[in-house]
Protein: DUF445 family protein
Organism: Nocardioides aquaticus
Amino acid sequence: MGLVDWLGVDGVVDAVVTWWTHIHWVHFLTIPLFTGVVGFLINWSGLWMLFSPVRFRGVRIPGMRELASVLPRKIQEIPGVLQGGVGWQGIIPARAAKMGSIAVDKAIAKLGTPSDFYQQLEPERIAEHIVASFRPEIPALVDEVMRREHPRLWRDLPGPVREAVVERVQNQVPAVVTRVTDEIGEHIDQLLDPKIMVIDHFRENPALVVRIFRDFGQRELDLMVRFGFVFGFLLGVPVAVADSIVGQWWLLPILGVVVGWVTNALGMWLIFEPPEPRRILGIRVHGLFLRRQDQAAEVYARIIAEDVITLERIGDFLLNGPRGDRTRQMLATAMRPAIDRAAGPARGAVRVAMGAERFDSIRDSVAREAVGRTLTPFRDRAFNAQQAERIQELVARRTKELPPRDFVEMMRSAIREDEWMLYAHGAIMGLGGGFLHLAFFGVGG
């Protein structure tokens, strides 16, 4: 039985008139204004919680780390708790390593294999650059190794003979470098792990993850804050009606919790959902980030190319990463035949004169020393900038091709498990807003 059937039309009209004439209008109208302001503050402070501070700020408490291991999992997810601290770190920078892992799984792995990235860097141009940079170092390299391994022989050799040795080694540089870049390209899938490289870089540079969001999403994030007022105000209207009817002190704080939670949830939904355009009640809706996927792809690609997958970082990973020993051994092995050829027709006689063991030691020392110096040009900033353009082009093109759902997952998955903190924060602020309204205006109804 409906209200109209129960009271009759006249009864309903009388009830509405009675309610209308007894409303305390200041109390009533200030509720949507309060919920609107609280909604704005919820989304504004929620953004601060997402991004700031970049590093953990708080105090370490003795025994907290041990206590944290037995606390509920949701509590353990609060930044700093598992590290034994009470304080805060922005949710996104705190999950930088996780976002790096997801970025690789969801996007970078689909953007290209290590071989794709390496080929995009044009190994032929890398070889040319290495030759140009490495050849002037040959005299010092040969002199250093010979003085260390066979100082007396090197000192006794006539100057023209030493110059001839250096010249023969220099003449082998193009063949050596081509062999090196070919070997790297052939084994790059085993030597280079983009996932480890990205995770480590994001973990060491959490501000970079914040920059990814800020650089292409600041406009949408600012819009979300403004919508916080709109959502809060609209949700405050039924709250004001309910409060004017029920008139109980506990109602505003409880409904404030609901308003705060829903305002934050709507804000997150506004940014990420729906991934593809849909019509809801005749209105076309589309996640704010998704509307500009192409522009976002350009920004994302620029950051990846300039800061994450760079020629310098690839070279550093190859030599100093977890598989660096294998890289060095492989490159040294590739260089030995060229060093043998540098000895020319005299190789046999020199080997006999010096002893096979001493000759091999010198050859291996030159090869080992040359490995690090060969990849030193990877750190050339100007050359890095030129090659970054090609990586940026690859990443941008393939990021634009990602299905919208994958693009959303790449950006949101790192914080999805922690969104409850934002919602809880909204609920607490909504509760506070309800009590604050009670303190100013008293009980309604």
The longest strand covers residues 57-60. The beta strands are 57-60, 85-88, 278-280, 283-285.
